[in-house]
Amino acid sequence: MNPPVLIVGGGPAGLVAALTLLQNGIPVRIIERDINYRIGQRGPGIWPRSFELFNFLDVPEVNDLGKPFPLIRAYKLGETEPTHIESMLPHTEPTPAIPFNVPKMLGQQLLDVILRGHLEKFSCSSDEGVTAVLAKKQGDNEILETFDTKWMIGADGPKSIVRKQLGLVFPGETMAEFRIVTGDIRLTGPGLDRVYWHRIGDFSNRCLALRPTDEIGEDGWHFLISGRSIDLEGLADNEELIFETIASMCPMKITFNKLVYSSEYRANVRMVNKFSQGRVFLAGGIIHSPTGGQGLNSSVQDSFGLCWKLALVEKGLADKSLLETYTEERLPVITEMLEMTTSILNRAVTTGRTDGWHTTVLYMLGIHCQFSSIVLDEFATPAGDRAPDAPKLLKVQPRESELMTLFSLYRPWRHTVIVFAPIALESYDKSLVRSAIILPSLAPTTPVASPADLVLLDQANHAYSAYLVEATQTKVFVIRPDGVVGAIVHGAEGVKKYFSRIFRDM
After folding, report:
1. How many domains would you assign to the chain?
2. Residue 455 included in any domain
3. 352, 426: one domain
4. Cβ proximity of 46 and 103 under 8 Å
5. pLDDT for 316-343, tens place per residue?
């Protein structure tokens, strides 16, 4: 039988959708119109909230292979000595609640390789050379295929064929004054220190940015050319002209070895009015400015947030109405993201400055769905926020002496019930719900009579602190498969009430 879910697009959003569904036991088929895998850095910035997502999916290589943003060495045009060194991002320290505190750079080409490697564990790979209408290319021939599927996810980028065929409204604006040519290049230069991200000039006039990347070789650089006084027409398709333009702006003597990839980007700011229609969904239904680096991160979070719900519906455990909350929860988030990144772009264009990135809002840790119809809050603290981590939790049941973190409990195929008090809860299907009692640091470690799967001692008080619970309080948190606090309730009745919004029979 055909897999019940067809995913259109083999980029990060499509691959994350596939991996989330497969880990939920839902078979998928991925189709991709490009015959060859994409090359190039494309959207290389990965933000902390996305690292948490990849942690839940058990894809540690993204964090392991990502490189911190290098410091920027800024030059005026025609000058060989830098004017100053700056950081694009604010400095933050890791905390027990936020273990992934550092944004990192990882090119999309390598990210795709990592995700495809994990899909292969499920014997899943993408069909190369297949269009969205399932007309498969074989050499010069085209073979039409009829493919019946229950659900479709359009993860095919800003020019989405799925979106166009659905006829969804796609309002927005084209910012004609902002154009860039970007790509990957191999070059050497004695004055180009690979410790730094070099920026020559400014965005309001002429700008060249060169960031070192080892992903394409020891002499690899990601480049960006922009500025109102540069003729960018046809530049992306002309290797020789790219070399000439970079050489004319770079104050150091350089030797070009190879142009790996290049493309032109024109700033459009557009967003669909809804993320689904019937049984078809969009992941990344936006066109955004590159400033802020939110696009790839938002699209993979779209996929993750959609697919845990889709898996429950496909298994018959939840009503189809649960899928209506996908647009409900993501539309306000994406709207706010577009406003923020457009503001950063306008600042860069009008002033030539890039310090608009200097905000932890870009880290995406404050994204929430407090307004969602399926979250439940019986306290003043709002449900719908990101669930924080807590390390150094000592497992005292079912066996002692093992240290755990809360993040190690959160997985895309189950809810996690966190109980701050030794109270009785109903027993749930362990494949769908995992429960843990968290005892305060001074509590005795004697056995607790409870059907909870785990009893953990918060020996360093990280969990009670992160979840704003007093040692004498009783609070129960239900953590959704996407790492969002779905409910904050007093006890078993509140948990049951929350699950009645998610599951058909529980």
Report:
1. 2
2. yes
3. no
4. yes
5. 999 999 999 999 999 999 888 888 888 8
Rounded to 5 degrees, what angle do the CA atoms 364, 344, 72 make?
Answer: 85
Domain final position from 363, 396, 427: 363
Query: Tokens in use for 460?
Result: 């360093």
Domain that holds residue 392: 376-502
> Which position has the token pair 């948490």?
52
Say if residues 258 and 186 touch (Cβ distance below 8 Å): yes
Domain end marker among 299, 332, 363: 363
Computed from CA positions of residues 449, 450, 455, 459, in that sequence, does the dihedral angle turn out positive or negative?
negative
Which one-letter DSSP state was computed for residue 402? E
Pairing of strands 220-226, 280-282: unpaired
Q: Do 471 and 425 lie in a common domain?
A: yes
**Residue 466 sits in the same domain as residue 391:** yes
- Where are the alpha helices (H) located in 390-505, listed in sequence order? 462-466, 492-502
CATH number of residue 448's parent domain: 3.40.30.20
Closest among 271, 278, 272, 368 to 323, alpha carbons compared: 278
On whether the CB atoms of residues 41 and 112 are closer than 8 A, the answer is: no
CA distance 436 to 420: 9
In this structure, what token pair is assigned to residue 128? 């190369």
Element (H, E) at 52: helix 48-56
440 and 490 share one domain: yes
Token couple for 165: 């065929």
Q: How far is CA 391 from CA 48, 97, 471, in A?
A: 17, 8, 17
In a domain, 222, yes or no: no
Q: What is the pLDDT of residues 385-413, one digit of tens each?
A: 999 999 999 998 887 778 999 999 999 99
The pair of structure tokens assigned to 72 is 């920027």
144 with 51, same domain: the answer is yes
Which tens digit of pLDDT belongs to each residue from 64-95? 999 999 999 999 998 989 999 989 888 889 99
